[in-house]
Amino acid sequence: SLQRELYWARESLILAWGSTTGLQIKMGIDLNIWLGYRGWHMDLAENSLLNKLIRKSLVESNHHVEVLQRDPSSPLFSVKTFEELHLKKELLQGIYEMGFNRPSKIQETALPMMLADPPQNLIAQSQSGTGKTAAFVLAMLSRINGAEKFPQCLCLAPTYELAVQTGQVVEKMGNLCVNIRVAYAVRGNRLPRGTKIEEQIIIGTPGTVLDWCFKLKLLDVKKISVFVLDEADVLIDTQGFLDQSFRIQRTLPQHCQMLLFSATFEDTVLRFAKQIIPDPNIIKLRREEMTLTNIRQYYFLCENKQDKYKALCNIYGSITVGQAIIFCQTRRNANWLSQELSQDGHQVSVLSGELTVEQRAAMMTAAWNPVISRI
Ligand SMILES: Nc1ncnc2c1ncn2[C@@H]1O[C@H](COP(=O)(O)OP(=O)(O)OP(=O)(O)O)[C@@H](O)[C@H]1O
Q: Is 100 in the pocket of ligand 1 (CB under 6 A)?
């Protein structure tokens, strides 16, 4: 049956090579294959990035949005069209150019709250692909004064790659908003002390954002008017990020709007969310039962690293793979796998944290360039 599935699989492929003790292979678009040892644990950030890469359109939901208002007596607004939000002309145009016709389920309720005056804080949870990123990017873009050349919105993301994904949404949606720019506060993007940052939106990982704010004094936190914690469940899963997020949040001015988003709402996430976001509105969208008819998933148990590699080769032998991203848990693993694949005649590049931001960005772009087939 696997052979038959492989035969029908399309060319796009995303693979995740697990720890030295496990291999997970996730094939995107049409088919997911998971190879691994019992007890294999997938990195949440990888999972999140995979979801973003695989899913290119909105996940529609029929569930009602559950709302817990900061002030239960205030009227609850929801919108069915983007026009009702009275956005800047160029922003509305930007949304339509992205192909958005109407707000998604979560956006119907979240957007009026996020755009309200005076600003309200928000905690929002809904599964991946339901439009959270688009919602907070819209909120950031609508609050920025493009004429002012200093950081006004700060968005924390768990990894460089996830930060770039959000940055790309800002660039697309803000395409027609003149003078609005994004800077990435991520490891590898080294700016000398005293650099004047003119970009209005900063997207970065907590550690580097802290450095930019306090060690290098590149960012004046007191001027931030929108603070976003994206992928909160992934953020708190990364060692040190929870404390660092609190340290940043504590220095924000009182009028700063704070928004937190998460795909899941475990107790730990909700506790963190309620601690870090003062007086929030909380909205939740129940998870839609997934009936992804075009994705099938397989999981294989392997004995050892060689076995995993053999399994990988079998898959490559069974289908024509155009391009693939293979996620590895360690740099060593990535280098080893890259060597093995190169020896087998594949075109491979290794993307890891030791590269500069420019190198990593170039590599991400190359992922969609047919010359390099595996990253
Ligand atoms: N109102 C909308 N109409 C049509 N498409 C939309 C709308 N909002 C978002 N999308 C598209 O749906 C997809 C998922 O949206 P988005 O990335 O904002 O979801 P998300 O909840 O943030 O997902 P994740 O948790 O994976 O980041 C994207 O391709 C986005 O462009």
A: yes
Span from the CA of 104 to the centroid of ligand 1 (angstroms)? 8
The residue assigned the tokens 């090579």 is 17
The rounded Å distance from CA 210 to ligand 1 centre is: 28
Are 46 and 149 in a shared domain?
Answer: no
- Dump pLDDT digits (tens) for 53-65: 666 678 877 778 8
330 shares a domain with 195: no
The boundaries of the domain holding residue 314 are 13-57+293-374
Ligand 1: atom nearest CA of 230 is 27
Q: What's the complex ipTM?
A: 0.97
Using pLDDT thresholds of 50, 70 and 90, give the confidence band for residue 223: very high
Q: Do both 200 and 256 map to the same domain?
A: yes
User: 218 alpha carbon to ligand 1 midpoint, in Å?
Assistant: 31
The number of beta carbons lying within 10 Å of the beta carbon of residue 143 is: 17
pTM of the entire predicted model? 0.74
